[in-house]
Amino acid sequence: MSQTTMNNFQFAPLRSLDDFILESARFQIPTFSDFEKWGNRVVKNLLYYQTNYFILSAIELIIIGLIQPMKIVLGAVAIAAVFYAVLMIYGPNKSASTQQLQSVNKYAVLGLLLGIAYIFLYMFDAVLLVAFAVLLPISSIFIHSSLRLRNLKNKLTTTVETIGIKHSPMGQLLEALGLMPDTFQ
């Protein structure tokens, strides 16, 4: 990020609960046949309600973590072990010692992989809980941003964001993913 981008980097304000989900909020099922209009609605709601979405995600993760804290930790460890084993064995930057270990001790490496696979399958319910803990906030954000109709303030704020006058975390993420609306790039 350049210095000028860092100087303009701002967090979006927290929108009121009334505007986010209560009385003044208007919801409507999107037109599924018009993906461009639906995607535009989602992107603009992501930009406008980004702080609310961050807090919603944090609350959902905390609730799931408080219900099953040990399973969350064990599931995360199992997932990390699988990723580490795969990167160690098949990663692009294998060290010389890893290559030598694989060539000399093929059965030890196979045993290690089988052991990690067994642990992963043994803790599969914990792995699924971690997947649920990650996917629940993503899906709730997508559902809200798909259903929430935009108001005039939302339209003005997201137009300023997409033009590039102001930069926010969600704006940077959407720009990096190439999901900013084409009309403003």
UniProtKB/TrEMBL annotation:
Topology within the bilayer: Multi-pass membrane protein
Family: Belongs to the PRA1 family.
Record flagged with keyword Cell division: no
PANTHER family registered for this protein in UniProt: PRA1 FAMILY PROTEIN, PRA1 PROTEIN
Statement: the UniProt record of this protein carries the keyword rRNA-binding: no
Protein name per UniProt: PRA1 family protein
Pfam families: PRA1 (PF03208)
Segments passing through the bilayer: 46-67, 73-92, 104-121, 127-147
Subcellular location: Membrane
Position of the signal peptide: none
Keywords: Membrane, Transmembrane, Transmembrane helix
Tree of life domain: Eukaryota
GO cellular component, one term: membrane
